[in-house]
Amino acid sequence: MEIGALQRVESDEAGRLAAAAGKGHGAAGTHEAKADRLDAMASLVRRQLGLLGENPERAGLRRTPERVAAALGFLTRGYEQDVRAVVGNGVFEEAHENMVLVRDIELYSLCEHHMLPFFGKAHIAYIPDRRILGLSKLPRIVDVFARRLQVQERLTDEIADAIMDVLAPRGVGVVIEAQHLCMMMRGVEKQNSRTVTSAMRGVFRDCPMTREEFLRLVQ
Ligand code: ZN
After folding, report:
1. pLDDT for 97-116, tens place per residue?
2. What is the distance between the alpha carbons of residues 29 and 34, in angstroms, rounded to a whole number?
3. How many CB atoms lie within 10 A of CB 86?
4. Is residue 69 within 8 Å of residue 101, measured between CB atoms?
């Protein structure tokens, strides 16, 4: 295919995808818009396979574009989720005043620079102010933000801010330790490196003893 035609095909597909995405995201998204978006994504993957030098029609790859499109939809479903909806009525009045800590929350995300996975654990603590959060809600809040294209630093901040927003506790601490396949499989190939990020809000930021207690508990 000559270059002009190639660019035309690319801009057609990009336009179709953008149109489908515009219709498909948010509360107004319909099943049809979602199906259009998956179709457009699958045809991009089919082209991508060709550009990689593969034959998209060979038996093993024939259904791959649809599978990749579905997988990407699942891995980025956080765009269609909202923290308040996820928390629902999982906030309870409670006089408890000590630190609540949930360690080792499994986390899978995609780095926005390479669209390759990064994965690891989140540790989240907060000090309540007359309200506590149902414990199962913390992993779900992590997922709302992890299931998007991310950088680990922003993911950490977004989780902390969301908990501050939805619960208004006296403070929140979030630590994420993760391994990035874009570092492990390519480029520097630092296979055992872990990236650690933290976000401190309220008393976790202002009170060194609280912060130290949290950091000691997650080590
Ligand atoms: Zn990356």
Report:
1. 899 999 999 999 999 999 99
2. 7
3. 16
4. no
Calculate how far, in angstroms, residue 5's C-alpha sits from the geometric centre of ligand 1. Answer: 31
For the entire predicted model, the pTM comes to: 0.84
Measured in Å, residue 125 CA sits from the centre of ligand 1 at 27
Give phi and psi for 12, each to the nearest 5.
-60, -50
Residues tagged active-site = 111-114, 152, 180, 182
CA of 141 relative to ligand 1 center, distance in Å: 22
User: Which option is the CATH number for 85-218: 3.40.1390.10, 3.30.1130.10, 3.40.50.2300, 3.30.230.10?
Assistant: 3.30.1130.10
pLDDT in tens, 122-169: 999 999 999 999 999 999 999 999 999 999 999 999 999 999 999 999
Beta-bridge partners for 150: 111
Give the dihedral sign, CA 74/134/91/157. Answer: negative
φ, ψ dihedrals at 13, nearest 5°: -70, -40
Which residues in the chain are classed under CATH 3.30.1130.10?
85-218
**Which pLDDT tens digit goes with each residue over 60-82?**
999 999 999 999 999 999 999 99
Cα of 183 vs centre of ligand 1, distance in Å, is 7
According to DSSP, residue 160 is labeled: H
